[in-house]
Design a protein that fits this description.
Blueprint (H helix, E strand, L loop, with lengths): L2 E4 L6 H10 L4 E4 L2 H6 L2 E4 L5 H10 L3 H5 L5 E4 L1 H4 L2 E4 L4 E2 L4 E7 L10 E9 L14 E6 L1 E2 L6 E7 L1 E9 L2 E4 L7 H13 L2
Parallel strand pairs: 1-2, 1-3, 3-4, 4-13, 5-7
Antiparallel strand pairs: 5-6, 7-10, 8-9, 8-11, 11-12, 12-13
């Protein structure tokens, strides 16, 4: 199996690669459209701002390439957010694969933004991506913007408000948290992704 990790300009790629290698995968970190198109699986990671990430993908000529992918694709953290139509962060148009607009999370007493740390998710419907996971698995989150809950939502998370934590539309999947930092539950989700058909 070939696994391409898109060079979207974010940090923390080393831990993503290490987590995938522990599962027996041999990922390739790339910005080459041909490598991405022909890979069996594709990861879209992301850390930072939506505008900067979309600018980088546009400069690399990867936006249409990503939109047209037919194999399983997993967006991680900002990478998941980029799958949506737009983000209110700098009024950024995103990839438009999943309907919805990312909104900044609201802080309140006892609720800090960015949402940083461990939190549980609640499954909304069964999916092979969630196979073997408990009803409320723990994952590690770091984000200030969140995706709306919709028909594509597989699991939600509560941090002051409920938001989409795991999404899937066809071959495109997304995790708002960092599975590579989320111990056995994150490893299971990554393993499930590698096994998707």
């Amino acid at each position: 199996m070939t696994l391409a990790i898109i060079d979207s300009g974010g940090a923390n790629i080393g831990s993503v690669i290490h987590a995938l290698k522990r599962l027996g995968a041999e990922p390739v970190f790339t910005s080459a459209a041909d490598t991405i198109r022909t890979a069996d699986r594709v990861l879209l990671p992301g850390v930072g701002a939506a505008g900067a990430a979309m600018t980088r993908l546009r400069e690399l000529g990867l936006i249409q390439c990503i939109r047209e992918l037919q194999q399983p694709v997993l967006g991680i953290c900002l990478g998941m957010q980029l799958l949506f139509e737009e983000s209110t962060e700098d009024d950024t148009p995103c990839l438009g694969i999943i309907p919805g607009t990312l909104q900044k999370m609201k802080s309140s007493e006892g609720i800090r933004v960015p949402h940083m740390g461990w939190n549980t998710t609640t499954s909304q419907r069964a999916d092979p991506l969630l196979a073997g996971l408990p009803e409320k698995p723990w994952y590690y989150f770091v984000h200030s913007y969140c995706a709306p809950i919709g028909p594509e939502t597989l699991a939600t998370c509560l941090h002051g408000e409920s938001f989409a934590a795991i999404v899937r539309q066809g071959n495109f999947c997304g995790a708002q948290f960092h599975p590579e930092r989320s111990a056995r539950h994150g490893a299971r989700l990554l393993a499930n992704f590698l096994e998707l058909t």
